[in-house]
Amino acid sequence: MGADDKAQNTGEKIAGKAKEAAGKLTDNERLEAEGKGEQAKADLKNAGEKVKDAFKND
Description:
2 helices, mainly alpha, 58 residues
């Protein structure tokens, strides 16, 4: 996995956690759900990058 991709995915996950926390603090369910969605999206991207890396090494 490229370092740039990994850093970008980590940044997206952190942003999602921040959004989720802000949503919890303000009782904004939409913002909280948005944050959880961003975290899941970043996790999926990381998983996809790991799969690509596994095939590159073969």
